[in-house]
Structure formats: C-alpha cells, structure tokens
Specification:
276 residues, five-stranded parallel sheet, 30% helix
Length: 276
C-alpha cells in the first residue's frame, strides 16, 4: 500500500534526484574552475538551463517509478494506491488516493509498517507560509537568485552547495558555530572552510529563525534570525531542520506520530511514545 509515487523519499525527493543536481553542480564547477587549465576555452561563466535540467531529472525519476511498479507486478505483488488505516491488528482499511472508488479492507497475518518520514518546519511566523522544505527543492521551477538554507545537517549543506555551484547567492543559517557539528571535527572544519571559500555566506550562532516575511512589491522574503540579524531579498527560503516519521494517520490517540497519519496504530495495539 502506497499513497504516493513508488520508491519513497530516496527515489523521489532524496538521494536519486539530489545526485542528478550534484552532478550538474560538479559540471558547472569543472567548467568554471578547471576546464581552462586543460586548454578548454569555455568563454563566459557557464549558465545552467534550470527548466531543462529539471525536466530531464523528473523524467528520470518517473522512469524509476515505472521500473519499481513493473518489478512488483512481475514478482506477483499486488500494488494498492491509497492511505491505510488499522481496523484491528490484522485488518487495514484502504482509502484509494484517486477518490474514485470506495474504501475497502485487506487482511494479513503480518503487517509491516515502513511509512518513511517527511521534513518538519520549525515554529515561527511566516515559516510554513513562505518557506519550502528540502522536498520542495525539487519543485523549484527556476534557479533562485538568492537562496537561504536553514539547517546544519548534510541535507542543508548538500543543497546549499548545489545551488551555490549553479549560480545562486546562498546563505546558510546554522543555530550554533558550524554545520555538521556532530561529525568528526576534521570533516566539519574542512567543509566549513570549503563553503566559505566557494562563496556561501554562513550565518553562525543564530539560534534559528524567528520569522519570515514577504515583501508584497518585490515578492522576496526577509528572514529574521533569533540573534537579531536579518537576511533580506531572498527568492527562496528552504527549511532543512530535520525530519519526522510518517505515522500520524496511523494513530488517532497518539499526541504525535511521524508518517502514519491514517494508520490508527492504537487499533493494532501499538503505542507511540514520541512527544510533539
């Protein structure tokens, strides 16, 4: 049972499309910094055709979705598109995603929950309204002129690096002194040096974002940081501040459940101990 595209986060909004963008960024850096040393005259600074790149990347992901579906079919697996809710520990109620057919039930001796996760937005006025998540990065129709990336994990630094290499002015907002601070110091310090050298502006010791506002005339955003600083004129503000599991629908009685919104886990005797 799957409510969206086959392949989950990695195939659709994670590793696979990110590597496509990383490869494009690597090509841009090679053309800009290395090609001339090997005798190539590349002329002006290379400029990416973002819509063309996005179209090719999305088509590649769509092909992978099809490969997964055909693989399930050839293996004799029944693929149900919809949301699942536990009626009891061995019964699921399925609500089709299409909305064109009625709810039905399936039963099984064993039911595996592998619902994945999704990005979270920190609290603050205007943050959910005017920002995108790391998933939303793959919906961008054009390359932002100015991008603000909020987060200190590897998703934040990867996408900050991609946008910077492809031509965006990039601001990375971290709560403490540096990104990847839980990694080995040799790695995090080398990364910090490389990001600064490449032109990424790192806003340090901010304690996070206080709020985000939209300029009605320019349609750009202003990011107010908890330390009193401001970042003006952002086309895109991306929150990469963490992920939670998809379980809310799985549990009505749970205060918080990460990608299980419709599962109603309490009907299967499962208790979640995750605080909101």
């Amino acid at each position: 049972v799957e409510r969206a595209r086959l392949g989950g986060t990695c195939v659709n909004v994670g590793c696979v499309p990110k590597k496509v963008m990383w490869s494009a960024a690597t090509m841009a850096e090679t053309l800009d910094h290395e090609a001339s040393h090997y005798g190539f005259d590349v002329g002006a600074k290379p400029k990416v055709d973002w819509p063309k790149l996005k179209k090719a990347r999305d088509a590649y992901v769509l092909r992978l979705n099809g490969i997964y579906e055909r693989g399930l079919k050839s293996a004799g697996v029944t693929f149900l598109v919809g949301d699942a809710t536990f009626a009891d520990s061995h019964t699921l109620q399925i609500t089709p995603s299409s909305g064109t057919s009625d709810m039905f039930t399936v039963t099984a001796d064993k039911i595996l929950i592998a619902t994945g996760g999704r990005p979270i937005f920190p609290s603050g006025a205007g943050i959910e309204e005017y920002c995108i998540s790391s998933d939303g990065f793959f919906d961008l129709e054009e390359l932002p002129k100015v991008a603000v990336i909020v987060g200190a994990g590897y998703i934040a630094v990867e996408l900050a690096g991609v946008l910077n290499s492809l031509g965006s002015e990039v601001h990375l907002v971290v709560r403490k002194a540096k990104a990847l601070r839980e990694f080995d110091d040799t790695i995090s310090e080398a990364l910090d040096h490389a990001m600064v050298k490449s032109g990424i502006t790192i806003h340090r010791n901010t304690n996070g974002v206080a709020n985000v506002t939209l300029d009605a005339n320019t349609k750009t955003k202003t990011v107010a940081l908890q330390n009193g600083d401001f970042i003006y004129g952002a086309d895109t503000v991306m929150m990469a501040a963490g992920r939670v599991p998809n379980v809310e629908d799985l549990c009505n009685a749970c205060e918080f459940a990460p990608n299980v919104e419709t599962l109603h886990l309490e009907s299967a005797g499962v208790k979640l101990m995750v605080p909101r």
